Amino acid sequence: MSVSRREVLVGASLLALSAVAPLRGYAQSSGAALPVPPVLDATENGAIELTAVAGTTAFVPGAPSPTLGFGQAYLGPVVRLRSGSTVSAAVSNDTDRDVSVHWHGLLVAGDADGGPHQPIAPGATWRPTLTVDQPAATLWYHTHIHESTADGVYAGLAGVLIVDDGLDAERGLPTAFGRDDLVLVIQDKRFDAAGRAVYEPTLADALHGFLGDTILVNGAIGATAAVPAGIVRLRLLNACNARNFTLAFADGRAFHVIAGDQGYLPAPVAAEAVKIAPGERVEILVDFAAGDAVLMSAPHDEGVGAAGMAHAMGGMPMQEDPMAGPFPVLAFAVDAAAPVAIRSVPDKLLGAEPLAAPGEPSVTRDIVLNDMGMLVAPVEPGGHHMGAMAGMNMAPPAVEDSVAAVRFGINGQPFSMERIDHETALGSVERWIVGGEMMGHPFHVHGARFKVLTVAGEPPRPEAGGWKDTVFVTGRVELLVHFRHPAAAAAPFMFHCHVLEHEDRGMMGQFTVA
Ligand code: C2O
Ligand code: CU
Ligand code: CU
After folding, report:
1. Is 266 exposed, middle or buried (0-12, 13-18, 19+ CB in 10 A)?
2. pLDDT tens digit string along 465-499?
3. Which ligand is nearest to the CA of 408?
4. Is the pTM of this model over 0.85?
5. Residues 148-166 pLDDT 10s
6. Looking at ligand 1, which residue's alpha carbon is closest to its atom 1?
7. Could you count the other beta carbons within 10 Å of the beta carbon of residue 127?
């Protein structure tokens, strides 16, 4: 199996940094054990109950931050569903704000999707039936209230969802959850001088997405994962509001990519680095027979320079990434006493869905992710103001309102709950050509899965080579999207940028499938 030249370069450049630049945020080694999230297993009884609650979390010892979670103060349990089953869910809201639970990547009908049309009011319970009609995959769930997804996810309303087909032992994959099968929810946060997590986006954050100064994995800063001296499966979720990662081990060790957003690749693919954008999942097998390791990330690289330049020319602030150098994400320490179940990587991944085109595309859609400037008035009636939105006639925002005035859109229009952007035929395949303005954008589609044909004219990287639901758009990305689940106008599917500051400010659309 070959490793691309680019991957070797990324791995080598991280390797060269044995002395890692210190972070401006919190220390990356607390010595604490990596938290293993609790499991909510519906594979036996076909039912799950989740309750959104408010609490406090001391990410930094002695400095509690107000947080939200599902059944716990921060984040939620790992929900495990059986592929092919029907699950009754009950989602309650014990917080004082509207929440929703969108099952990101779960291919269910629009009325069970949990998007912005299915808010759960404080004190209410939402009871969708989930028909789990897809192969094994690592998905996630999170709140999705219009204009309030970014602060809700940042506060902790998110968790991992595993679709399990019961065949992992037969595949030769590790199956001991929390020991050799690890869920890693990767996030970043910004902390104030007292050590409390803050979410106060500046104008630069509104424009480029909010970047933290400290990395958390499963809600912990600087934790260490204890692993056996053999093959370990890592289910990586990028649950950041806006940060991209290029992940590689500090010692340059190769690993194998086994799955992307929507499940297994046909066979493990050797790699030395993987890219993961907000909303995406990548699963890898790592051999810890080679000893302790540190998972590192290269900085948020793609498209940011162009965005900064364009914004600077328009008089907008540039964004400074507080973690601009390679930085550690998670340390792994081999526990020699831990039993080793798997010592070699399987040659094939049993039952991977073929990536055969499910038919010829019936429609081609051009989707442009737009930066729409600021919501400001024309300079004089009928005149034009730089960055003004057509048809708007509001007073120019005061400086402190400028964050709220930033607008994004798709194909020239900011999101509207009242407008259906297009209608798609149930069972059809469509070719979507997605392009982004100003910077790269992680583009996500609800209720459907897609195959990535090209990214900026090139074939996708291995981790983006299987069925997906989220893809990082740099230049033009060509997708073949397959629509097998219905969505009516009362509960349509969303398509949007997964930089949550962009989504909340209008970089989202909605469609029906019938
Ligand atoms: Cu993960 Cu519409 O979102
Ligand atoms: Cu989604
Ligand atoms: Cu975006």
Report:
1. middle
2. 999 999 999 889 999 999 999 999 999 999 999 99
3. 3
4. yes
5. 999 999 999 999 999 999 9
6. 104
7. 11
